[in-house]
TrEMBL record:
Region (Disordered): 289-310
Keyword Oxidoreductase tagged: yes
InterPro entries in the record: KR_dom (IPR057326), NAD(P)-bd_dom_sf (IPR036291), SDR_fam (IPR002347)
Ketoreductase domain location: 18-197
NCBIfam families assigned: PRK05872.1
PANTHER family documented for this protein: DEHYDROGENASE/REDUCTASE SDR FAMILY MEMBER 7B, DEHYDROGENASE_REDUCTASE SDR FAMILY MEMBER 7B
Similarity comment: family membership: Belongs to the short-chain dehydrogenases/reductases (SDR) family.
Protein name: SDR family oxidoreductase
Compositionally biased tracts (Polar residues): 291-302
Keyword list, A-Z: Oxidoreductase
Organism per entry: Gordonia westfalica
Length: 310
């Protein structure tokens, strides 16, 4: 286990005593957000499908964190983890529905099961997380942060179910806000560009054409943002109970231009380089017999529902 110093996100933010549930807490955005929330006084219910990863994060934080293993597509397992966390800490004030999976390859060649699994994790997993925690969130007039993406607004060719799923999460946040807003619950959605996480690094490792494709897209789409920047924005947004969190800020422009981007003008974003990218991506998928990272394939078969925290 790695015992690392807990970064303090923002000394003006104080969430002392607040209880936050984070899914996908074992690495990437979930891990960094957990560490920063711990740094501003929060207590953490950490959920991940990877036992060793979530155990590592919980150990780093110490007694103010408890880790649980659950697949977010298994509602019974997820509900059991949430109930155990509520029993441990007394309730939930904050939810970060972060667990997600990236996929790649063209629609015309994508395995239907890969698409189904992607939607199951990225959409159903978010709803299951919200549903399991909602009673406690309503009781405490808390805050829900549903992690979407810039791809909710921008076309996402070559991403399979990822972009459609993130658009669904954006709409889920809006629908949920209409239902629970008058109950004192705030609902936010997070929209990020490319963030330096294991998800992106796995894609870079699997697809040698990915970085070249980003360069052809040009600024600002060619930039990968540090996960620390993203986690800091999450913590500030959580403290302010923001409706939307954009990382980096220019993603807000994409949100406002969403309808324009769905017109023929938006089609001009993608030229012949897209065809080349898809062809090479499909070739990699065929060779590797998977349309997601090897890490995702491994963790998908891990056992669920065990407590790992302390």
């Amino acid at each position: 286990m790695a015992f690392l110093p807990i970064p303090r996100s923002d000394r003006k933010v104080d969430l002392t005593g607040k209880v936050a549930l984070i899914t996908g807490a074992g690495n990437g955005i979930g891990k960094e957000t957990a560490l920063r929330l711990a740094g501003v006084g929060a207590r953490l219910i950490l959920v991940d499908i990877d036992r060793s990863a979530v155990d590592d994060v919980a150990a780093t934080i110490g007694t103010r964190a408890s880790g649980y293993v659950a697949d977010v597509t298994d509602y019974a397992a997820l509900d059991a983890a949430v109930r155990a966390g509520v029993e441990r800490f007394g309730g939930i004030d904050i939810v970060v529905a972060n667990a997600g999976v990236g996929t790649y390859g063209s629609f015309r060649n994508m395995d239907p099961e890969t698409f189904r699994r992607g939607i199951d994790i990225n959409v159903n997993g978010v709803f299951f997380t919200v549903r399991a925690a909602l009673a406690s969130i309503i009781e405490r007039r808390g805050y829900l942060l549903l992690v979407s993406s810039m791809t909710a607004f921008l076309p996402g060719p070559g991403m399979g179910p990822y972009a459609p799923g993130k658009a669904a999460v954006d709409h889920l946040a809006t629908s949920l806000r209409a239902e629970v807003g008058r109950l004192g619950v705030a609902v936010g959605s997070a929209h990020m560009s490319w963030i330096d996480t294991p998800l992106i690094r796995d894609i870079q490792s699997d697809l040698s054409v990915f970085d070249d494709y980003l360069k052809k897209l040009g600024p600002p789409l060619d930039k990968i943002v540090g996960v620390d920047v993203c986690a800091d924005a999450f913590v500030r947004g959580i403290a302010r109970r923001q409706r939307r969190i954009y990382v980096p800020g220019w993603v807000a422009v994409a949100a406002w231009c969403k309808h324009l981007l769905s017109t023929r003008l938006g089609d001009r974003l993608f030229g012949p380089e897209l065809d080349d990218f898809l062809e090479k991506t499909d070739a990699v998928v065929a060779e590797q017999h998977r349309a997601s990272s090897g890490r995702n394939v491994t963790t998908a078969n891990m056992p669920t529902v065990a407590e790992t925290g302390r």
